[in-house]
Design goal:
3-stranded parallel beta sheet; alpha/beta; Rossmann fold; 3-stranded antiparallel beta sheet; 4 domains; Helicase, Ruva Protein, domain 3; 18 helices
Length: 437
Protein backbone atom coordinates (compact mmCIF):
# COMPACT_ATOMS: atom_id res chain seq x y z
CA UNK A 1 0.00 0.00 0.00
CA UNK A 2 1.36 3.41 -0.96
CA UNK A 3 1.71 6.01 1.77
CA UNK A 4 -0.79 8.18 -0.11
CA UNK A 5 -3.31 5.33 -0.10
CA UNK A 6 -3.34 4.97 3.66
CA UNK A 7 -6.63 5.80 5.43
CA UNK A 8 -6.79 9.27 6.97
CA UNK A 9 -9.11 10.23 9.81
CA UNK A 10 -9.31 13.18 12.14
CA UNK A 11 -10.59 14.41 15.45
CA UNK A 12 -11.72 18.03 15.29
CA UNK A 13 -12.43 19.59 18.71
CA UNK A 14 -13.31 23.22 19.32
CA UNK A 15 -11.24 24.84 22.10
CA UNK A 16 -14.30 26.52 23.59
CA UNK A 17 -14.41 24.11 26.51
CA UNK A 18 -12.63 21.15 28.05
CA UNK A 19 -12.57 17.67 26.48
CA UNK A 20 -15.59 15.70 27.68
CA UNK A 21 -16.44 12.01 27.64
CA UNK A 22 -18.29 12.10 24.30
CA UNK A 23 -15.50 13.91 22.48
CA UNK A 24 -12.86 11.69 24.05
CA UNK A 25 -14.64 8.56 22.80
CA UNK A 26 -14.90 10.01 19.27
CA UNK A 27 -11.20 10.79 19.41
CA UNK A 28 -10.46 7.28 20.61
CA UNK A 29 -12.46 5.60 17.83
CA UNK A 30 -10.67 7.70 15.22
CA UNK A 31 -7.28 6.92 16.74
CA UNK A 32 -8.01 3.21 16.93
CA UNK A 33 -9.18 3.14 13.33
CA UNK A 34 -6.03 4.91 12.15
CA UNK A 35 -3.68 2.70 14.14
CA UNK A 36 -5.53 -0.51 13.18
CA UNK A 37 -5.30 0.33 9.47
CA UNK A 38 -1.78 1.80 9.67
CA UNK A 39 -3.34 5.07 8.58
CA UNK A 40 -2.91 8.69 9.59
CA UNK A 41 -4.59 10.38 12.54
CA UNK A 42 -4.95 14.15 12.30
CA UNK A 43 -5.86 16.52 15.11
CA UNK A 44 -7.66 19.53 13.69
CA UNK A 45 -8.39 22.40 16.05
CA UNK A 46 -11.63 24.08 14.97
CA UNK A 47 -10.92 27.47 16.51
CA UNK A 48 -12.87 29.68 14.11
CA UNK A 49 -14.89 31.10 17.01
CA UNK A 50 -12.18 33.56 17.96
CA UNK A 51 -14.14 35.07 20.84
CA UNK A 52 -14.83 31.79 22.66
CA UNK A 53 -11.68 29.81 21.81
CA UNK A 54 -9.16 29.89 24.65
CA UNK A 55 -5.60 28.66 25.02
CA UNK A 56 -6.39 26.96 28.35
CA UNK A 57 -9.01 24.79 26.64
CA UNK A 58 -6.66 23.95 23.80
CA UNK A 59 -3.88 23.00 26.20
CA UNK A 60 -6.23 20.79 28.18
CA UNK A 61 -7.62 19.05 25.09
CA UNK A 62 -4.14 18.14 23.84
CA UNK A 63 -2.98 17.16 27.33
CA UNK A 64 -6.05 14.94 27.87
CA UNK A 65 -5.63 13.19 24.52
CA UNK A 66 -2.02 12.38 25.34
CA UNK A 67 -2.87 11.42 28.93
CA UNK A 68 -5.38 8.87 27.66
CA UNK A 69 -2.62 7.22 25.66
CA UNK A 70 -3.21 8.60 22.16
CA UNK A 71 -0.93 10.45 19.80
CA UNK A 72 -1.52 12.26 16.50
CA UNK A 73 0.47 12.47 13.28
CA UNK A 74 -0.36 16.06 12.31
CA UNK A 75 -2.10 19.05 13.85
CA UNK A 76 -3.86 21.92 12.09
CA UNK A 77 -5.56 25.10 13.29
CA UNK A 78 -8.52 26.43 11.33
CA UNK A 79 -7.81 29.97 12.55
CA UNK A 80 -4.66 29.88 10.39
CA UNK A 81 -6.51 28.76 7.27
CA UNK A 82 -8.99 31.60 6.71
CA UNK A 83 -7.44 32.53 3.35
CA UNK A 84 -8.20 29.04 2.05
CA UNK A 85 -11.86 29.26 3.05
CA UNK A 86 -12.20 32.66 1.36
CA UNK A 87 -10.58 31.33 -1.82
CA UNK A 88 -13.05 28.45 -2.03
CA UNK A 89 -15.97 30.72 -1.22
CA UNK A 90 -14.91 32.92 -4.13
CA UNK A 91 -14.87 29.86 -6.40
CA UNK A 92 -18.48 29.21 -5.47
CA UNK A 93 -19.37 32.82 -6.19
CA UNK A 94 -17.59 32.66 -9.57
CA UNK A 95 -19.53 29.52 -10.50
CA UNK A 96 -22.86 31.06 -9.46
CA UNK A 97 -23.35 28.66 -6.56
CA UNK A 98 -22.90 31.31 -3.88
CA UNK A 99 -23.47 35.03 -3.58
CA UNK A 100 -22.45 37.89 -1.33
CA UNK A 101 -24.97 39.97 0.56
CA UNK A 102 -24.44 42.41 3.44
CA UNK A 103 -20.76 41.40 3.75
CA UNK A 104 -21.70 37.70 4.19
CA UNK A 105 -21.42 34.96 1.69
CA UNK A 106 -24.36 32.60 1.17
CA UNK A 107 -24.19 29.13 -0.41
CA UNK A 108 -27.18 28.04 -2.53
CA UNK A 109 -28.08 24.38 -2.09
CA UNK A 110 -28.78 22.60 -5.37
CA UNK A 111 -30.73 19.89 -3.62
CA UNK A 112 -31.40 16.41 -4.87
CA UNK A 113 -31.84 13.33 -2.70
CA UNK A 114 -28.64 12.61 -0.81
CA UNK A 115 -27.74 9.07 0.17
CA UNK A 116 -24.82 7.76 2.18
CA UNK A 117 -23.70 4.29 3.21
CA UNK A 118 -22.81 4.91 6.85
CA UNK A 119 -20.31 2.33 8.10
CA UNK A 120 -22.18 2.05 11.41
CA UNK A 121 -25.79 2.78 10.48
CA UNK A 122 -26.03 1.50 6.95
CA UNK A 123 -27.93 3.40 4.26
CA UNK A 124 -29.20 6.86 5.23
CA UNK A 125 -31.36 8.80 2.75
CA UNK A 126 -31.95 12.54 3.07
CA UNK A 127 -35.04 13.71 1.19
CA UNK A 128 -35.02 17.39 2.10
CA UNK A 129 -33.12 20.21 3.74
CA UNK A 130 -34.55 22.72 6.22
CA UNK A 131 -33.36 25.69 4.10
CA UNK A 132 -32.40 26.54 0.52
CA UNK A 133 -29.28 28.54 1.35
CA UNK A 134 -26.88 29.04 4.21
CA UNK A 135 -24.15 31.43 5.29
CA UNK A 136 -20.66 30.02 4.68
CA UNK A 137 -18.61 33.15 5.48
CA UNK A 138 -19.89 35.40 8.25
CA UNK A 139 -19.81 39.20 8.24
CA UNK A 140 -16.68 39.18 10.39
CA UNK A 141 -14.90 37.01 7.81
CA UNK A 142 -14.94 33.77 9.79
CA UNK A 143 -16.18 30.59 8.07
CA UNK A 144 -19.16 28.62 9.34
CA UNK A 145 -18.74 25.09 10.62
CA UNK A 146 -20.13 23.19 7.65
CA UNK A 147 -18.07 25.09 5.09
CA UNK A 148 -14.70 25.01 6.88
CA UNK A 149 -15.26 21.35 7.69
CA UNK A 150 -15.81 20.47 4.03
CA UNK A 151 -12.77 22.39 2.80
CA UNK A 152 -10.48 20.89 5.43
CA UNK A 153 -11.75 17.32 5.11
CA UNK A 154 -11.25 17.53 1.34
CA UNK A 155 -7.80 19.16 1.40
CA UNK A 156 -6.60 16.86 4.17
CA UNK A 157 -7.81 13.90 2.11
CA UNK A 158 -10.08 12.37 4.73
CA UNK A 159 -11.05 8.86 3.71
CA UNK A 160 -13.50 8.42 6.59
CA UNK A 161 -15.21 10.89 8.90
CA UNK A 162 -15.98 9.31 12.29
CA UNK A 163 -18.11 11.63 14.41
CA UNK A 164 -21.13 11.75 16.70
CA UNK A 165 -24.62 11.09 15.42
CA UNK A 166 -25.58 14.65 16.34
CA UNK A 167 -23.76 15.61 13.12
CA UNK A 168 -25.98 13.48 10.88
CA UNK A 169 -28.11 16.51 9.98
CA UNK A 170 -24.97 18.29 8.75
CA UNK A 171 -24.01 15.48 6.41
CA UNK A 172 -26.30 16.24 3.42
CA UNK A 173 -25.36 19.94 3.54
CA UNK A 174 -21.69 19.09 3.48
CA UNK A 175 -22.07 16.56 0.67
CA UNK A 176 -23.79 19.20 -1.49
CA UNK A 177 -20.89 21.57 -0.80
CA UNK A 178 -18.38 18.87 -1.80
CA UNK A 179 -20.23 18.33 -5.07
CA UNK A 180 -20.57 22.04 -5.79
CA UNK A 181 -16.80 22.39 -5.48
CA UNK A 182 -16.02 19.17 -7.33
CA UNK A 183 -14.33 17.65 -4.28
CA UNK A 184 -14.23 14.00 -3.23
CA UNK A 185 -16.82 12.99 -0.62
CA UNK A 186 -15.42 10.86 2.24
CA UNK A 187 -17.13 7.89 3.85
CA UNK A 188 -19.02 8.46 7.07
CA UNK A 189 -19.46 6.63 10.36
CA UNK A 190 -21.72 8.30 12.91
CA UNK A 191 -21.24 6.92 16.41
CA UNK A 192 -24.21 6.88 18.81
CA UNK A 193 -24.63 9.35 21.61
CA UNK A 194 -23.72 8.51 25.18
CA UNK A 195 -26.73 8.66 27.48
CA UNK A 196 -27.21 8.42 31.23
CA UNK A 197 -28.26 5.07 32.70
CA UNK A 198 -31.80 6.42 32.95
CA UNK A 199 -31.84 7.03 29.20
CA UNK A 200 -31.66 10.83 29.31
CA UNK A 201 -28.91 13.21 28.37
CA UNK A 202 -25.72 13.06 30.38
CA UNK A 203 -25.38 15.62 33.14
CA UNK A 204 -22.84 16.43 35.84
CA UNK A 205 -24.59 13.84 38.00
CA UNK A 206 -24.38 11.21 35.30
CA UNK A 207 -20.81 11.45 34.10
CA UNK A 208 -20.88 14.54 31.86
CA UNK A 209 -17.65 15.94 33.18
CA UNK A 210 -14.38 16.66 31.45
CA UNK A 211 -11.47 14.26 31.21
CA UNK A 212 -9.58 16.82 33.28
CA UNK A 213 -12.07 16.44 36.13
CA UNK A 214 -11.87 12.65 36.04
CA UNK A 215 -8.11 12.94 36.28
CA UNK A 216 -8.46 15.28 39.26
CA UNK A 217 -10.76 12.75 40.95
CA UNK A 218 -8.05 10.12 40.70
CA UNK A 219 -9.23 8.00 37.80
CA UNK A 220 -6.44 6.26 35.91
CA UNK A 221 -5.95 7.05 32.22
CA UNK A 222 -5.96 3.37 31.26
CA UNK A 223 -9.28 2.80 33.01
CA UNK A 224 -10.96 5.81 31.40
CA UNK A 225 -9.73 4.76 27.94
CA UNK A 226 -10.82 1.16 28.54
CA UNK A 227 -14.28 2.24 29.66
CA UNK A 228 -14.72 4.59 26.69
CA UNK A 229 -13.89 1.67 24.41
CA UNK A 230 -16.84 -0.29 25.75
CA UNK A 231 -19.34 2.48 25.07
CA UNK A 232 -20.84 1.06 21.84
CA UNK A 233 -17.99 -1.34 21.02
CA UNK A 234 -16.93 -4.70 22.39
CA UNK A 235 -13.80 -6.80 21.95
CA UNK A 236 -16.00 -9.88 22.13
CA UNK A 237 -16.03 -12.89 24.42
CA UNK A 238 -17.56 -10.90 27.27
CA UNK A 239 -14.16 -9.33 27.76
CA UNK A 240 -14.14 -6.02 29.61
CA UNK A 241 -10.53 -5.28 30.57
CA UNK A 242 -8.51 -4.39 27.47
CA UNK A 243 -5.63 -2.02 26.80
CA UNK A 244 -5.41 0.40 23.89
CA UNK A 245 -2.49 -1.59 22.52
CA UNK A 246 -4.62 -4.72 22.45
CA UNK A 247 -7.70 -2.91 21.15
CA UNK A 248 -6.00 -1.34 18.15
CA UNK A 249 -5.18 -4.79 16.81
CA UNK A 250 -8.83 -5.85 16.67
CA UNK A 251 -10.84 -2.62 16.40
CA UNK A 252 -13.26 -2.37 13.48
CA UNK A 253 -15.49 0.66 13.02
CA UNK A 254 -18.21 -1.46 11.43
CA UNK A 255 -18.60 -3.33 14.71
CA UNK A 256 -19.55 -0.20 16.64
CA UNK A 257 -23.11 -0.55 17.88
CA UNK A 258 -25.54 1.99 16.45
CA UNK A 259 -27.73 2.17 19.56
CA UNK A 260 -27.06 4.75 22.26
CA UNK A 261 -24.54 3.78 24.93
CA UNK A 262 -25.46 4.05 28.62
CA UNK A 263 -22.82 5.62 30.84
CA UNK A 264 -22.54 3.94 34.24
CA UNK A 265 -20.54 5.56 37.02
CA UNK A 266 -20.71 2.27 38.95
CA UNK A 267 -19.16 0.42 36.02
CA UNK A 268 -16.45 3.04 35.59
CA UNK A 269 -15.66 2.95 39.31
CA UNK A 270 -15.44 -0.83 39.24
CA UNK A 271 -13.14 -0.75 36.24
CA UNK A 272 -10.91 1.92 37.75
CA UNK A 273 -10.68 -0.16 40.92
CA UNK A 274 -9.59 -3.16 38.86
CA UNK A 275 -6.82 -1.12 37.26
CA UNK A 276 -5.68 0.12 40.66
CA UNK A 277 -5.56 -3.45 41.96
CA UNK A 278 -3.42 -4.72 39.11
CA UNK A 279 -0.99 -1.80 39.26
CA UNK A 280 2.40 -2.85 40.61
CA UNK A 281 3.07 -1.88 44.23
CA UNK A 282 5.84 0.59 43.42
CA UNK A 283 3.87 2.29 40.66
CA UNK A 284 0.74 2.37 42.81
CA UNK A 285 2.52 4.01 45.74
CA UNK A 286 4.01 6.58 43.36
CA UNK A 287 0.51 7.31 42.00
CA UNK A 288 -0.83 7.79 45.51
CA UNK A 289 2.07 10.02 46.53
CA UNK A 290 1.79 12.23 43.44
CA UNK A 291 -1.97 12.50 43.86
CA UNK A 292 -1.78 13.42 47.54
CA UNK A 293 0.93 15.99 46.91
CA UNK A 294 -1.21 17.52 44.15
CA UNK A 295 -4.04 17.85 46.66
CA UNK A 296 -1.69 19.20 49.37
CA UNK A 297 -2.98 16.43 51.62
CA UNK A 298 0.09 14.97 53.28
CA UNK A 299 1.16 16.34 56.67
CA UNK A 300 4.71 17.65 56.87
CA UNK A 301 7.41 15.09 57.58
CA UNK A 302 5.32 12.14 56.41
CA UNK A 303 7.91 9.40 55.97
CA UNK A 304 8.12 7.54 52.67
CA UNK A 305 7.99 4.15 54.39
CA UNK A 306 4.90 5.06 56.40
CA UNK A 307 3.16 6.42 53.32
CA UNK A 308 3.94 3.19 51.49
CA UNK A 309 2.44 1.08 54.29
CA UNK A 310 -0.73 3.16 54.42
CA UNK A 311 -1.09 3.19 50.64
CA UNK A 312 -0.79 -0.60 50.39
CA UNK A 313 -3.29 -0.98 53.22
CA UNK A 314 -5.99 0.45 50.93
CA UNK A 315 -4.85 -0.83 47.51
CA UNK A 316 -7.60 -3.44 47.18
CA UNK A 317 -10.31 -1.08 48.42
CA UNK A 318 -10.14 1.98 46.17
CA UNK A 319 -12.39 2.83 43.25
CA UNK A 320 -10.44 6.01 42.58
CA UNK A 321 -7.49 7.77 44.14
CA UNK A 322 -9.67 10.42 45.75
CA UNK A 323 -11.24 7.65 47.88
CA UNK A 324 -7.89 7.36 49.61
CA UNK A 325 -8.15 10.87 51.00
CA UNK A 326 -11.49 10.05 52.61
CA UNK A 327 -10.74 6.52 53.79
CA UNK A 328 -7.14 6.88 54.89
CA UNK A 329 -7.27 10.30 56.51
CA UNK A 330 -7.28 8.75 59.97
CA UNK A 331 -3.83 7.32 59.26
CA UNK A 332 -2.37 10.83 58.92
CA UNK A 333 -4.52 13.03 61.15
CA UNK A 334 -5.89 12.65 64.67
CA UNK A 335 -8.65 15.25 64.41
CA UNK A 336 -11.33 12.92 63.02
CA UNK A 337 -14.80 12.56 64.48
CA UNK A 338 -16.93 9.45 64.81
CA UNK A 339 -19.15 9.03 61.74
CA UNK A 340 -22.91 9.28 62.16
CA UNK A 341 -23.43 5.64 61.22
CA UNK A 342 -21.33 4.53 64.21
CA UNK A 343 -23.89 5.85 66.70
CA UNK A 344 -25.38 2.42 67.43
CA UNK A 345 -21.92 0.99 68.12
CA UNK A 346 -21.01 3.86 70.43
CA UNK A 347 -24.22 3.53 72.44
CA UNK A 348 -22.85 0.38 74.07
CA UNK A 349 -20.31 1.44 76.67
CA UNK A 350 -17.43 -1.04 76.57
CA UNK A 351 -14.86 1.05 78.41
CA UNK A 352 -14.05 -1.83 80.79
CA UNK A 353 -13.35 -4.26 78.00
CA UNK A 354 -11.34 -1.75 75.94
CA UNK A 355 -9.27 -0.82 79.03
CA UNK A 356 -8.32 -4.47 79.41
CA UNK A 357 -7.39 -4.63 75.73
CA UNK A 358 -5.27 -1.48 76.07
CA UNK A 359 -3.41 -3.02 78.99
CA UNK A 360 -2.66 -6.19 77.04
CA UNK A 361 -1.57 -4.26 73.97
CA UNK A 362 0.78 -2.07 76.00
CA UNK A 363 2.72 -5.18 77.06
CA UNK A 364 3.25 -6.54 73.55
CA UNK A 365 6.89 -6.55 72.51
CA UNK A 366 6.08 -7.10 68.82
CA UNK A 367 3.12 -4.96 67.78
CA UNK A 368 2.44 -6.66 64.44
CA UNK A 369 -0.80 -7.95 62.97
CA UNK A 370 -0.18 -11.53 64.10
CA UNK A 371 0.49 -10.64 67.75
CA UNK A 372 -2.28 -8.04 68.00
CA UNK A 373 -4.83 -10.43 66.53
CA UNK A 374 -3.75 -13.22 68.86
CA UNK A 375 -4.00 -10.97 71.93
CA UNK A 376 -7.27 -9.44 70.72
CA UNK A 377 -8.98 -12.79 70.30
CA UNK A 378 -7.71 -14.00 73.65
CA UNK A 379 -9.12 -10.93 75.41
CA UNK A 380 -12.48 -11.42 73.70
CA UNK A 381 -12.56 -15.07 74.71
CA UNK A 382 -11.61 -14.29 78.31
CA UNK A 383 -14.43 -11.74 78.49
CA UNK A 384 -16.95 -14.14 76.99
CA UNK A 385 -17.33 -12.01 73.88
CA UNK A 386 -17.46 -12.84 70.23
CA UNK A 387 -14.56 -11.25 68.37
CA UNK A 388 -16.90 -9.06 66.33
CA UNK A 389 -18.35 -7.55 69.55
CA UNK A 390 -14.95 -6.02 70.16
CA UNK A 391 -13.96 -5.45 66.52
CA UNK A 392 -16.63 -2.84 65.86
CA UNK A 393 -15.88 -0.41 68.71
CA UNK A 394 -12.12 -0.81 68.23
CA UNK A 395 -12.44 -0.02 64.52
CA UNK A 396 -14.46 3.09 65.36
CA UNK A 397 -11.87 4.08 67.94
CA UNK A 398 -9.01 3.82 65.46
CA UNK A 399 -10.63 5.44 62.42
CA UNK A 400 -13.95 6.98 63.37
CA UNK A 401 -15.53 4.73 60.75
CA UNK A 402 -17.73 1.66 60.71
CA UNK A 403 -15.85 -0.05 57.90
CA UNK A 404 -12.25 0.01 56.77
CA UNK A 405 -9.20 -2.08 55.96
CA UNK A 406 -8.23 -5.18 57.91
CA UNK A 407 -8.28 -4.22 61.57
CA UNK A 408 -5.02 -5.88 62.59
CA UNK A 409 -3.21 -4.74 59.47
CA UNK A 410 -4.34 -1.20 60.28
CA UNK A 411 -3.11 -1.56 63.86
CA UNK A 412 0.34 -2.60 62.66
CA UNK A 413 0.54 0.40 60.33
CA UNK A 414 -0.64 2.88 62.98
CA UNK A 415 1.70 1.51 65.62
CA UNK A 416 1.29 0.75 69.32
CA UNK A 417 1.35 4.31 70.68
CA UNK A 418 -1.25 5.63 68.29
CA UNK A 419 -3.53 2.60 68.73
CA UNK A 420 -3.48 2.87 72.52
CA UNK A 421 -4.01 6.65 72.40
CA UNK A 422 -7.06 6.23 70.18
CA UNK A 423 -8.52 3.46 72.31
CA UNK A 424 -8.11 5.74 75.34
CA UNK A 425 -9.85 8.51 73.42
CA UNK A 426 -12.90 6.26 72.94
CA UNK A 427 -12.89 5.29 76.62
CA UNK A 428 -12.81 8.98 77.55
CA UNK A 429 -15.72 9.56 75.14
CA UNK A 430 -17.77 6.87 76.81
CA UNK A 431 -16.93 8.13 80.29
CA UNK A 432 -17.80 11.71 79.39
CA UNK A 433 -21.11 10.75 77.87
CA UNK A 434 -21.98 8.42 80.76
CA UNK A 435 -21.41 11.20 83.28
CA UNK A 436 -23.87 13.43 81.40
CA UNK A 437 -26.66 10.87 81.68
Amino acid sequence: MKSSDKPIVRFAPSPTGYLHIGGARTCLFNWLYARHTQGKFILRIEDTDLARSKQEYLDEIIESIKWLGMDFDEIYYQSKRFDLYHDYAQKLIDSGKAYKKDDAIFFKYDFANVEIDDLIRGKIVFNELPKDEEVIIKKDGTPTYNFSCVIDDALMKMSLVIRGEDHISNTPKQILMYKALGLNVPQYAHVPLIMSEEGGRMSKRYGATSIREYKQEGYLAQAIANYLLLLSWSPGGNREIITLSEAKDIFEIKKVNKTAAAFSMDKLNWMNGEYIKKTGAQEYVALIEDYLKGKNFLPENTGAEYLKKVALLFKERLSKLSDFIIRARFCFYDDYTYDDDTKEILERNMSKEVNILMDKFSKLANFNKEETEKEFRQVAADLGLKARDLVHPVRVALSGKKVGPGLFEAMEVLGKDKVIARLKRLVDYWNANTSKQ
